Amino acid sequence: MRPEPADASGAETVLDLRGLACPQPVLHAKRALRTVPAGAVLVLECTDPLTVIDIPHFARQTGHRLLGQAESDGLYVFRLMKRH
Predict the structure, then answer these.
(1) Taking the model in full, what pTM does it have?
(2) Quick check: 81 and 40 in contact, CB under 8 A?
(3) What is the pLDDT of residue 6?
(4) Rounded to whole angstroms, how far apart are CA atoms 69 and 80?
(5) Which position among 32, 33, 54, 63 has the lowest Cβ density within 10 Å, counted as fewest Cβ atoms?
């Protein structure tokens, strides 16, 4: 999966990880974070309920900042800011 800029500035990138089960969302996020500049925001859209554990743990472990997370109708959305 390729990250796609959410807006023209490219400051926020959305990664559609729907349908992927653990550990795939974290692995895709890790790969995508290599392609975005420091300070950029990566938005992860997931359907695996285990991501509520995995993504915050990944952020703590790697030093990326978890800006927020939300769930609505089985869609889990996380906003990560890439560390400098």
Answers:
(1) 0.86
(2) yes
(3) 46
(4) 9
(5) 63
- And the tokens for 32? 């995508």
- Domain range for 54 is 4-81
Strands 12-17 and 41-46: parallel
Bridge partners, 69 (sequence order):
78
Please state the domain count of the chain: 1
Distance CA 63, CA 18 (A): 24
Q: Which residues contact 46 (CB under 8 A, 6 or more apart)?
A: 17, 18, 20, 25, 55, 75, 76, 77, 78
Q: Is residue 4 scored above 70 in pLDDT?
A: no
DSSP state of 63: T
Identified catalytic residue from 6, 12, 20, 22:
22
Q: What is the CATH number of the domain that holds 19?
A: 3.30.110.40
Confidence check: pLDDT of 3 > 70:
no
